[in-house]
């Protein structure tokens, strides 16, 4: 594979040749050039003024993307107040007159325009072929809030926001180590979205980082509006129902990923960050697991595995038993099922598909509608579909219970991308179970197992601690062993730096020498 | 070139998929049956009519009736002890024939997969029902866990009898068997026994009290029906039933009473906690003799004697009395079976296991040999629990009587 370390800026074609992109020593010409590049950009303000009553200048900015207070106080005021006789050449204005933290020069009108678009005001001076880019962009951001899709009982409440600078600062605050490396690149010909690859040097495998960089550098697209774009463009198996990258809004999850030797991809404009590689086991680990005590967490985690299987197989098994293998149902249970099904006009599989569809419709509607109406729709819909359908004799009561329980069980998956795949496969198994009985369900499960075994996420086997088996990592697979036993990092971290904990630190009053 | 390659890949793929496709055609939606298109049989009865035809009685789950019952309670007039099942019967030349005729009367397919009990009428049992059993073990839907019973009188009488505790006849017989036996006999065991060398078997024998009024009159398991050469030859009831259960490790929930000591109120009642019996064939003067060794642990539940059982010497007395009781009833029962020429305790098998060579000599004349066979019952009983009251009520603490 060709090794590339630099990421060329991808732009929309070439500049039209009629523009003279070089700035010239004429303020009017430069302003004209800029206006020409920007076209009908009426939100751009061109503010002509005079520096120290001598030198003509133009401040170009977009009002709501720049810090107005700073423009007034730290740009316009000192420049206008500049006393006569003070040097007013380009470099002294840059170095002496502007009390601004970050400032750049630019000689190219096109580059200037791009900086302007990002919210940086431009300062153009008379008789000067360079422009000053004042990095005082400021726009409205959402404050750091608790992510609504990933709540936890215990643990930090902060989540990523749409602003990548905020996100980077959140990461830095969590991991205050110089080894936290943040590599920047831009993807998207039109959006030029700022993307950061974050990793822990010395913990993440260099090959892994290289692979992430390679895959990102291969992306050539006009826009990146969400991490989902990147996810789909860098997946190992694009048609797999299983997510091969994990996304999260939680800072602590991203930080934990970094410390396990994984790579985090942050994208500007979305609160979701991507974590690679991912295994099935990691998708069933919730942040809470590591904050609550281990016995309790282990119980919950096993419950989650159980719920996953229920969610995947329960309706399919029900159909298979009821239409092919009646002898497998205990006598009394069968009798009550038969009596509840007596007036139902549909075959079992139609019943299940109907209810499943009603459930999905309700769920989708609840998601799309405004939140206040959404809950109302869900409640009314659940009541109508559940209660009325049963009393009208359209579906039997056991089906309602099974579909409802299946749906609820799916929600126990801590990362709902996994729940999506389970939903998809559930449908497949329902059809297989309805057509072929238990044999069909087994075929389906075998197919899923084979697929899972072949799947890889950035080179890491998807079922990794289970198969290929790694005894050490089983401590964090089905159960969550106490922290003092999880001495090593997972297998996808760098080999010579696996130890995360000093061994033999089992808490014990005798250990510290206390009496 | 490229086209050739893709074709060969396609062929490879087809070769891989062919076995899968073949497997898929083995099953499919054409094999499916909605539960509501089935007449689910929970219990079946076979009997013989006077003119020698076979009567097949099926108890079928009736969902309509059940729904009315489990409904809001307004329509509870339908109950009347009918249960949630209906009983239908038909008469044919064989059991399978009768089943075919019964199917004519039913709109739904008869489904044997949930069959739980099989009730054989006494008439047919005495006549030999092995031939009819053939159908039941041949149908692939029927599980071999079905429990067979023999009923006193006609099988239809049993299906006409009523009982209030259980919803179905099958449920009733199952819980009845679970109450009486440690490990209820199943169809598979019955078939094994019937095809063994001794060709004997025992089946639970249901008694139906004659006066079936509203009071009492519920059927119950009274004893064992003894089969020899596929025909019912007699029953073991009362103490013999108990003894047969002793010897076959089937004891459960049984209460026994023995006399201890020689003072006037001397009855002690106990239940059995655990029992183990073994058959040990020994050769004595060239003759086979069977030792039936029974070990059991008992729990005293009532003591009318004035002997405190907390004292070891009194406990020994009770243990000896209980052992003597066991010895008596088991000896009596084995004599009974010897009279019936039915080796229900599988003496023959014990000998066969000890000495297969000898058995091959013995086997042809076993039916004559068994009634003459010598046997000895050795019982050892351990008193394990005496309950909360260690000293009999009304007895002074000081007054310690030495036996």
Summarize the structure.
The complex is a heterodimer of chains A (515) and B (403). Chain A has 17 helices and twelve strands.
Largest interface: pair, residues per side: A-B, 25 and 32 residues
Shape of chain A: elongated
Distance between the termini of chain A: 62 Å
* Approximate helicity band of chain A: 40-55%
Main sheet record of chain A? 5 strands, antiparallel
Major sheet strand order of chain A: 1-2-4-5-3
Tell me about this structure.
The complex is a heterodimer of chains A (515) and B (403). With 515 residues, chain A is of the alpha+beta class. Chain A has three domains: 27-134, no CATH class; 164-278, no CATH class; 307-461, no CATH class. Helices cover 44% and strands 11% of the residues of chain A. Chain A has 17 helices and twelve strands. In chain A, strands 1-2-4-5-3 form a five-stranded antiparallel β-sheet, sandwiched between helices. A five-stranded antiparallel β-sheet of chain A has the order 6-7-9-10-8, sandwiched between helices. In chain A, a hairpin with a 5-residue loop joins β6 and β7 (193-200). The radius of gyration of chain A is 30 Å and the shape is elongated. The N and C termini of chain A lie far apart (62 Å). Chain B is an alpha/beta fold and 403 residues long. Chain B has helices at 2-24, 63-70, 95-105, 122-127, 130-138, 155-160, 169-180, 187-194, 239-247, 312-340, 347-354, 356-362, 366-372, and strands at 38-48, 54-61, 85-92, 109-111, 117-121, 147-151, 200-207, 220-228, 231-237, 255-259, 267-284, 287-303, 374-385. Helices cover 35% and strands 29% of the residues of chain B. Chain B folds into two domains: 36-237, no CATH class; 238-403, GMP Synthetase, Chain A, domain 3, CATH 3.30.300.210. In chain B, β8 (220-228) and β9 form a beta hairpin. In chain B, α11 crosses α12. In chain B, the strands form two sheets. In chain B, strands 1, 2, 3, 4, 5, 6, 7, 8 and 9 form a nine-stranded mixed β-sheet that branches. The longest helix of chain B has 29 residues, at 312-340. Chain A binds chain B through residues 322-324, 326-327, 331-332, 334-342, 344, 347-348, 434-437, 439-440, and chain B through 23-24, 26-29, 31-36, 38, 40, 42, 61, 63-64, 66-67, 70, 84, 111, 113-114, 116, 141, 143, 167-168, 170-171.
């Amino acid at each position: 594979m060709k090794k590339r370390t630099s990421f060329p800026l991808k732009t929309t074609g070439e500049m039209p040749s009629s523009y003279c992109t070089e700035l010239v020593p004429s303020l009017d010409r430069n302003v004209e050039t800029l206006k020409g590049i920007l076209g009908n950009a009426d939100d751009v303000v061109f503010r002509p003024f005079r520096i120290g009553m001598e030198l003509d200048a133009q401040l170009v900015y977009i009002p709501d993307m720049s810090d107005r207070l700073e423009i007034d106080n730290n740009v316009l005021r000192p420049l206008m107040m500049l006393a006569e006789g003070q040097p007013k050449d380009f470099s002294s204005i840059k170095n002496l007159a502007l009390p601004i933290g970050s400032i750049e020069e630019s000689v190219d009108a096109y580059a200037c325009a791009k900086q302007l678009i990002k919210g940086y005001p431009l300062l153009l001076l008379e008789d000067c072929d360079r422009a000053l880019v004042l990095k005082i962009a400021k726009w409205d951001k959402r404050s750091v809030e608790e992510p609504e899709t990933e709540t936890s009982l215990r643990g930090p409440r902060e989540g990523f926001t749409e602003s990548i600078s905020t996100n980077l600062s959140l990461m830095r605050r969590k991991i205050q180590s110089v080894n936290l490396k943040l590599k920047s690149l831009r993807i998207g010909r039109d959006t030029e979205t700022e993307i950061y690859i974050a990793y822990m040097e010395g913990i993440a495998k260099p090959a892994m980082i290289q692979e992430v960089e390679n895959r990102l550098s291969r992306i050539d697209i006009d826009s990146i509006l969400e991490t989902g774009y990147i996810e789909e463009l860098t997946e190992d198996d694009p048609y797999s129902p299983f997510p091969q990258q994990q996304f999260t809004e939680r800072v602590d999850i991203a930080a934990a990923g970094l410390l396990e030797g994984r790579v985090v991809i942050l994208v500007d404009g979305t609160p979701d960050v991507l974590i690679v590689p991912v295994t099935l086991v990691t998708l069933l680990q919730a942040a809470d697991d590591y904050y609550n005590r281990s016995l309790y967490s282990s119980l919950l985690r096993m419950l989650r595995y159980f719920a996953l299987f229920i969610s995947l197989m329960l309706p399919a098994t029900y159909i298979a038993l009821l239409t092919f293998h009646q002898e497998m149902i205990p006598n009394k249970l069968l009798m009550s099922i038969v009596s509840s099904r007596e007036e139902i006009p549909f075959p079992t599989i139609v019943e299940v598909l109907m209810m499943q569809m009603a459930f999905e419709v309700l769920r989708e509607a609840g998601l799309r509608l405004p939140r206040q109406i959404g809950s109302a729709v869900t409640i009314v819909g659940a009541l109508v579909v559940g209660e009325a359908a049963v009393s009208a004799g359209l579906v039997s009561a056991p089906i309602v219970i099974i579909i409802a329980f299946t749906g609820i069980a799916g929600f126990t998956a801590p990362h709902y991308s996994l729940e999506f795949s389970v939903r998809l496969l559930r449908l497949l198994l329902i059809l297989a179970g309805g057509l072929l009985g238990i044999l069909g369900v087994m075929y389906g499960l075998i197919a899923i197992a084979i697929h899972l075994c072949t799947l890889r996420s950035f080179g890491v086997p998807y079922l990794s601690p289970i198969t290929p088996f790694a005894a050490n990592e089983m401590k964090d697979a089905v159960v969550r062993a106490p922290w003092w036993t999880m001495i090593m990092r997972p297998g996808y971290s760098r080999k010579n730096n696996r130890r995360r904990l000093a061994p033999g630190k089992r808490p014990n009053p005798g250990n510290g020498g206390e009496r | 070139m490229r086209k050739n390659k893709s074709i060969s890949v396609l062929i490879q793929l087809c070769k891989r998929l062919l076995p899968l496709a073949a497997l898929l055609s083995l099953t499919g939606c054409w094999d499916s049956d909605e539960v509501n298109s089935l007449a689910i049989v929970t219990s079946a009865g076979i009997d013989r009519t006077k003119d020698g035809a076979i009567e097949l009685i099926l108890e079928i789950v009736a969902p309509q009736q059940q729904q009315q019952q489990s409904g809001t309670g307004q329509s509870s007039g339908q109950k009347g002890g009918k249960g949630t099942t209906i009983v239908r019967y038909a008469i044919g030349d064989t059991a399978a024939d009768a089943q075919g005729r019964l199917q004519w009367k039913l709109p739904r397919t008869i489904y044997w997969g949930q069959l739980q009990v099989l009730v054989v009428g006494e008439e047919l049992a005495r006549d030999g029902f092995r031939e009819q059993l053939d159908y039941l073990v041949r149908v692939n839907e029927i599980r071999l866990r079905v429990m067979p019973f023999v009923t006193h009188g006609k099988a239809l009488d049993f299906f006409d009898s009523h009982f209030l505790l259980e919803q179905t006849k099958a449920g009733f017989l199952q819980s009845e068997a679970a109450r009486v036996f440690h490990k209820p006999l199943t169809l598979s065991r019955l078939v094994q026994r019937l095809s063994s060398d001794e060709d004997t078997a025992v089946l639970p024998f249901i008694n139906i009290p004659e006066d079936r009024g509203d009071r009492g009159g519920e059927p119950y398991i009274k004893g064992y029906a003894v089969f020899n050469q596929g025909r019912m030859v007699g029953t073991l009831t009362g103490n013999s039933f108990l003894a047969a259960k002793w010897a076959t490790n089937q004891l459960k929930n049984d209460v026994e009473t023995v006399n201890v000591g020689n003072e006037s109120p001397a009855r002690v009642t106990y239940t059995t906690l655990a029992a183990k019996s073994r058959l040990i064939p020994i050769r004595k003067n060239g003759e086979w003799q069977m030792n039936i060794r029974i070990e059991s642990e008992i729990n005293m539940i009532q003591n009318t004697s004035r002997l405190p059982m907390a004292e070891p010497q009194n406990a020994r007395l009770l243990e000896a009395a209980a052992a003597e009781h066991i010895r008596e009833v088991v000896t009596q029962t084995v004599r009974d079976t010897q009279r019936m020429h039915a080796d229900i305790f599988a003496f023959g098998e014990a000998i066969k296991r000890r000495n297969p060579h000898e058995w091959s000599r013995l086997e042809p004349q076993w039916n004559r040999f068994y009634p003459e066979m010598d046997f000895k019952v050795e019982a050892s009983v351990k008193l394990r629990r005496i309950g909360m009251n260690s000293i009999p009520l009304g007895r002074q603490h000081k007054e310690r009587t030495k036996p």
